[in-house]
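It would be a great kindness if you could assist me with a short task in structural biology. The matter concerns a single protein, recorded as an amino acid sequence and a row of backbone structure tokens. The record follows directly beneath this note:
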Amino acid sequence: MSDGPYKSLPMKPRWRRAAKCAYKEAYSAEEIAESVARASHADWRSEVRPALVGSVTAIVNAPGQQFLFADQALADLGALQRSCASPMEAMLVRTTIDAVRAGMTGTAAVQQAAEDTLSDRVLCNYRQVEEHVRRDDNVQNARFVRDRFATAHGQVDFGALARALLKTGDPLPRQTRSAHTDLDAGVPL
């Protein structure tokens, strides 16, 4: 008997937990969303250097009339992209470039870029989990996992998560694990 295909998933432990939550019906969509948010938070903290975030923020917060110097900001961001140390850093710079091209400046551009970076990474990890389940289990369970992730994705507050990571908002709340002590405290029906 297998513990589930998520056990052999070649991902970080937090993403294995998110895959487990999506794979097992006992977990609610809120629990899946919380595990996804925690995994994304851990990815950002391990892959995105605070110095890079500071550089991106300094570029888009340049003093003066920012709408006149968008080309300079784009050039500076392009140069910064060559010094990225991880794929998530490179994605942050690319999404910042997209935000500046869309006319955003200042903290709004950095906030939007962080949200887009987190969302993109989460979607990539969803696809990786789905592919792994499809390969190791079956197509029906892969669709089930994809649907559960899609449902939970709408409940993940990427804006609040980005503000917590950029330190412009409240930090991520502590994880609250409820202890199920009896039969009545089980899965909600």
Residues 179 and 185 are 8 Å apart (CA to CA). The chain has one domain: 10-169. Helices lie at 13-23, 29-47, 50-60, 70-81, 87-101, 106-136, 139-153, 158-166.
